[in-house]
Amino acid sequence: MRRAICSAIVQVGLLVLLGDVPPVPAQSGLSIGLIDPRTPAEPTQRNAAVLEFAQSQGKVMRLRPHPSGGWQVDPTWIRAPEEFDVIWYHQGDDPAAVALPEAVINDLRDYLELGGSLLLSGAAGQLVNSLDLETTPLRVLGPAPDPYLTGLIVRPEHRDHPAFAGLDTSKPILLTSLGANALADFYDTEGPHGTLLADGNVGLGERPLVEYTFGAGRVIVVGWRLPDFTTAEDPHRPNLERLFANLLKYLADRNTNRARPVTIPGESSYTRILGIPFLRVREVVDLMTPQAVPGEKAMVVLTTQPAGDKSLAADGLYLSEREAQGESVRVQTVGITLLTRSKSTAEFIEARKAEQRAAEEKERERIKGLKVLKPEVKLLPGPLKPLKTPELEQSVLLGRSPFMAPGDGKGDIRPVYEPIEDGGFRIANSPRQLNRMIVHGQNRLWTGDVPLFRMDTGTGNASYAADRIYPLWPREDSQAGQAMPSMGTLRIGVPGTDGKPQWLDELPDTVATFRPSYTEYDISGPAGAWKARVEVAPSMEGHGLICRVALDRPTPLVWQYGGIWWLAQEDNANKVEIAGGVAKITEANLPNGLVLAGWDGQGEGKTLTATYGQQAEFSTKTPAKVYHIAALWGVTTHDEKLAKDTPARLDTPAASGWAQVRDRLKEKWLDCFVRAALDPQNRFERLMKSPGAELDRTREHWDRRRKAFQIHTPDTHLNALINWERCRSEYHRKGPGLYLGEIWQMYSHISTGWYGKSWGGDHEAIGDCLRLYGAMQGDDGFIRWISPSLMPFVAENNTPYWVDQVWWHYAWTGDKQFVADLWPIVRKAVEWQRTKNDPDGDGLFQDWYEYWNCDSNGKGPKAAAPSAMSWAMLDRAAKLAEVVGDAKAAGQYRELADKTRDAVFRELWKEQAGRLGCIGGEGIWRGHPQIWEEYLAINTGLLSTQQGRRAMRWIASHYGFEPQPGVRLLACSDWFPIRWSTQWVPTGDTCLAAMAGMKSGDVDLWYPFLKTAVTSAYKSEFPGINMGISNAGAGGGDREDVDSVDPYVHVAVR
After folding, report:
1. For residue 1009, which of 1027, 992, 1026 has the smallest C-alpha distance?
2. Considering only the top CATH level, what class is 24-253?
3. pLDDT of residue 1022
4. Following DSSP, what letter does each residue of 656-707 receive, concatenated?
5. CATH 3.40.50.880 occupies which residues in the chain?
6. In this predicted structure, what is the pLDDT of residue 955?
7. Cα–Cα distance measured from residue 821 to residue 807, given in angstroms and rounded to the nearest whole number
8. Which helix (H) or strand (E) holds 331?
9. Which of 30, 403, 648, 753 has its CB surrounded by the most CB atoms within 10 Å?
């Protein structure tokens, strides 16, 4: 499921003219691609300072490396490095965040080899090891607690290098007296193999400035504490800026690899073939070739069939190259890229041949003078038999998680969060910003380790349906799921003695406390001048936030609010109107949108010029001890007809038998996706009548929910996390159903969830969600996924899990009417699963995406996981039939369940091996399962306690490993080759495996695995549950997907 997809506007007609597709616009100054894996979230402090400097040098676009290659500007917009004058990767805060996926490393290699340019600074310098540019491992350190006076001593032979233009190279060049950024350098190593341009000014062997060539490309590393741009007032700052301006220009001038992949209408994915980047569409498109812009010399057309004698075959496709300047011609293509160099494919092939020749020459030199042994060949009479029968399957573990874990599975994270036992996290003096999301329906409030706040919303991002979201704003791309519209950022400060604001998010003495749906901060002013408690939470009604600042003495306050957009990279021009203590903010790119921000303080407001147009600033005239600041967003008009038609999609034959409940689901959808955004002016006025009471209302509501469910064990970390997570899980509730998560915004993935939410007592939410899936059942019986705009679509198969959960909901609630309403849907679902996935009727099942975990596909045609879940489906269907009094169906399903159970133990369970396996099309039993093939059979009740104990002990002994003392990890399999669905360490599946092992009696064996999964939520870049775990026990990857979070509550309760 995780693959780079960028969507373009689909145009009607077979012939599409691309002459009007705009190229990358010409910019005054440089075009800089700035790599930042946090994109689109705000950069961390030191990286933000680099971004600000880079923006002074030209047009900057932040790029997030995508695991499958390519560079994301936002979740759906992919760019190639060839579209920029220079690529810059800086990391000043977290060395563990530098690592890039293998596909991205390979993409950079190809880009550089053909003439690209890359600047690496701070801890990002270590990337030269990953790129195989440097064999000496660099020293890597995090930010320093104390500042360093750092500079360069230029080597005499390089004093005329363009990097030092305008700098006096006859003496040390000091760059900063405050250098404290994270670093990578050559201190205490044998030194670099590239060209050392300059030494460090203290002469201890840092060797911080090195230039490399890579094919036709260039890479420059600026290491040590040199590249610290958080030094605006430093007297040496001009030298720092001059050096980096020189480096950027030098690399840009020598960049000979520029290209423009053309966006063709339709779904496309980023790929690189023979060194050339393409945005490849899935289906062949008939179109006219685009017009070239000045400087573009060659056009490479990607086709599925040869296009003449000169077509080059590669990766199952064909590349044909022609001159870029000329008349447009009609082509049938799946991708087009324009380049500034001619004969680009030939250059790539020649580079590969040269590489091969060099390797062969090296090999000849290596064996020169050695005796060559000639093998003795003996003939044996046939038929041949093996002299020794090898063990067919052996466990070979990678020993780390290459996916969804910091540092490619090797990284650690500091500082760590502390547990609050009744449900929460706490951290002191951490600089992380906007790293903790609070979700109320479609309103998302970002808080973080420091008191800086932002509201935004989702647009059905990553949903597979074409119709993804109800469009609050009338834009042509409003339903494309390409944006996370920002509704403004709140920044708060206290004026210093010099009159300048001391922004609270920059003060060092801060303790942040995270509770479900609100965050608190205890802050001390400089030299103890004041103390403050800051609280922030979403409003219970509408899309708003409320912030309270309580100080220990009357103190003046200043705050700013602004920065609204649909896409940050659009030409935004926020407009601010101030009346009294209220700012009204609008943006033409958010038509009909309105954001209001105000406070109860006594003071003045004014407009300031900022990045996205105007923003508001308010400051006090009369100091007070308590202030309340509130903001709220919405729309002034909306498409009323569409708001009526969209929930009508629930008027399906499947839901016709329970119309009253169906209509209640419609109302919940309207409340979430439409009504909460309406009438923002009046909602804001009501909010401002008593903002303190509204803040307390939110806190009290969520505190009641948190306190209603508490676990108490000897493990403080477990208690704190489960008491937090069960409460927080309501963030996923969006009207009539439960989202997968905020990264993947759709109703989906019920294979891992929502068992935990059910066992945690949220039965109303589960009942609604199961009804939603039932209402959207396909005509054939398949349980489909659903977009936020109630558009169902076919994706991974959750059909047997839905039937299982219908039973569990009844088992918890005893709601017979619920079963009666859904019984016809259950029968169709069971029939679909049997017909589709047991076509020969032997009781053993195959499947496609039978269980969601990293795109795991069926291992059939006789597969363990589908058979276990299909047995559970049949068993539960028999029980549901008894509830509705359908004795015939109960008998039929019981007979089918027994048939599947017998077949599983006859063919898939091997008593001697003590575990389940799968039988492939060749008839061979494969006994090295993925972990869910065992734990699903245990957790559903198919395997006995003794069988489960044997199976899970095998899993623990073969897939468990301990990379560091106290860090107990479980790989999901031992399969090769290494790819997304094989050897990694997923948090949610660790929990479900631990549950199966403990259910089978091995608590002491399995609790250490669970303990590591629990503590990974504290050793994390945000307070909460991630998707994967590194060898240091740190959490990383997707945040709070159902696949990760729901199993924690499930295992804790069950």
Report:
1. 992
2. alpha beta
3. 97
4. GGGHHHHHHHHHHHHHHHTGGGB-HHHHHHHHHHSHHHHHHHHHHHHHHHHH
5. 24-253
6. 98
7. 13
8. strand 330-333
9. 753
The sign of the torsion formed by the CA atoms of 853, 859, 863, 867 equals: positive
The SS3 assignment for 158 reads helix
How many CA atoms does the CB half-sphere of 466 hold within 13 Å?
6
pLDDT at 856: 59
Cβ–Cβ < 8 Å for 259, 324 = no
CA–CA separation, 813 and 802 (whole Å): 16
Asked if residues 65 and 100 have their Cβ atoms less than 8 Å apart, the reply is yes
Q: What is the spatial distance between Cα 968 and Cα 104, in angstroms, rounded to a whole number?
A: 29
**696 touches 730 (CB < 8 A):** no
Are residues 29 and 58 in contact, defined by beta-carbon separation less than 8 angstroms? yes
Q: Cβ atoms within 10 A of the Cβ of 604, count?
A: 13
Instruction: Check: CB of residue 829 under 8 Å from CB of residue 781.
Output: yes
Residue-wise DSSP of 844-889 = ----SS-S-SSSPPP--EE-HHHHHHHHHHHHHHHHHHHHHT-HHH
Using CA atoms, how far residue 421 sits from 262, 355, 761, in Å, is: 53, 59, 20
The CATH-assigned architecture of domain 735-913+920-927 is Alpha/alpha barrel (1.50)
CA-nearest of 95, 86, 84 to 37 is 95
DSSP code for 310: T
Instruction: Quickly count: other Cβ atoms within 10 Å of residue 648's Cβ.
Output: 10
Residue 166's φ and ψ, nearest 5 degrees, are: 80, 0
Give the pairing type, strands 268-273 and 276-281: antiparallel
SS3 616: strand
Comma-separated ranges of CATH 1.50.10.10 domains in the chain: 735-913+920-927
- Cβ–Cβ contacts within 10 Å for residue 224, how many? 31
Angle (CA) 137 143 146, round 5°:
125
Measured distance CA(1046)–CA(753) in Å, rounded: 6
CB-based burial, 247-266: b 16+ in 10 Å, e otherwise:
bbbbbbebbebbbbbbbbbb
- The DSSP annotation for 79-148 comes to E-GGGSSEEEEEESS-GGG----HHHHHHHHHHHHTT-EEEEEEGGGGHHHHTTS--SPPEEE---SS-E
**Phi, psi angle pair for 944, to nearest 5°:** -75, 170
> Using CA of residue 953, residue 988, residue 729, residue 1024, what is the dihedral sign?
positive
**745 pLDDT band (50/70/90 cuts)?**
very high
DSSP category for residue 986: B
List all residues 6 or more positions away from 914 whose beta carbon is below 8 Å from its beta carbon: 947, 950, 951, 953, 954
- Token pair recorded at residue 620: 């006090």
Start and end residues for every CATH 2.70.98.50 domain found in the chain: 423-638+674-699
Give the side-chain half-sphere CA count within 13 A for 836: 19
- Look at residues 478, 481, 477, 476 and name the one whose alpha carbon lies nearest to residue 465: 481
Rounded Cα–Cα distance for residues 404 and 630 (Å): 36
Can you tell me whether residue 58 is helix, strand or coil? Answer: strand
Across 888-897, b (16+ Cβ under 10 Å) vs e yields ebbebbbebb
Predicted pLDDT of residue 858: 57
Q: Report d(CA 32, CA 54) in Å as an integer.
A: 8
Tokens of 45: 């402090």
Q: Is the pLDDT of residue 10 over 80?
A: no
Helices then strands, counting H and E runs in the chain, come out as 21, 54
Burial of 446 (0-12, 13-18, 19+ CB in 10 A): buried
The pLDDT tens digits for 992-1032 are: 999 999 999 999 999 999 999 999 999 999 999 999 999 99
pLDDT at residue 344, rounded to an integer? 63
What CA–CA distance (Å, rounded) separates 295 from 289? 17
* % of the chain surpassing 90 pLDDT: 74
